[in-house]
What does this fold into?
Amino acid sequence: MFSGVGVQSSKATIIKLHLILPFPNLTKKMTRRRILRRARRGRRINRKLPYSQRCHRAKRFDNRVQKKLSPSIKANRQLELRVVKEVIRLFPVSNIVYEYIKARGDKGFSPAMVGQKVMLKWLKSIAPTVTQFGWQTSNLRQWLKLTKDKADKSKAVEETHSNDGVALAASHFIRWKEWQSSSVRGGYWDGEVIVTPAPFKVIAKPNIYRRQLHFENPERKKPNPTQYRKRKGGTITPFGLRSGDFVQAEKAGQVHRGWIGGYTQTAKTKNVSIYDINWRRIGQFSPNKIKLLKRSTKLLVSSVIS
It folds into this structure.
């Protein structure tokens, strides 16, 4: 559901990032898409015929032997990769440290483990990449005195995930070394790194719906008996704005900032919906009261958490 990224040098902490992954939104979309697809296929089958004579589409391939990532996991990894690429464009990154997750206890599988090998392959093509286990990150984080909030990891604060990212980055400069004598054994942290306060940002993807031409069942308008379907999805508005654009809007003397997520255009009303970083609607605003600040980059970046 969430991930953390930290950029660290030997002298200072550069930036901390908290990523809101698109996993839950994408799984909902795929479930809805599957339901609509099965409904369309069911409508074209004549169930009065024997089963062998019905119009069932033959399978094009055996989809149970594929090794590709599922769409939800792939979207998670692609967002992480996109953020890493943007960070490299801003800072001279020399090395990447990636936390390799293993299943807890006697469990052999965890959803967070899926896609790790593909992600490592992508990262290694960008910069030299090494892996580290979670317990190693925990030990170093505690030694660096970085706090960890394990009660609610969904909070968009530094203590949930971004501090882990800083600890991972700091492991490039400091390592645990063990020593042993004839009667005593121990260890110490070798190296030097300085952890400082740094800017904190929350990054997410806009939850934009694709244009659906065949959305559920058609309705009938009373004056006109012909069938019509509701407008669903899309990225373009008739007001010169696009979904995902960062804008500033004014309403009742208050100024709001957010991202375009949809619009309403009828004979009586013309409104544009604006959403926050969690993709919850702030409100509907008149197009005349909206000022475009930045065109959509398909990333939501904010330091203010609502």
User: Anything to note?
Assistant: The helical segments are 23-43, 71-90, 116-124, 134-143, 158-170. The two ends are 18 Å apart (CA to CA).
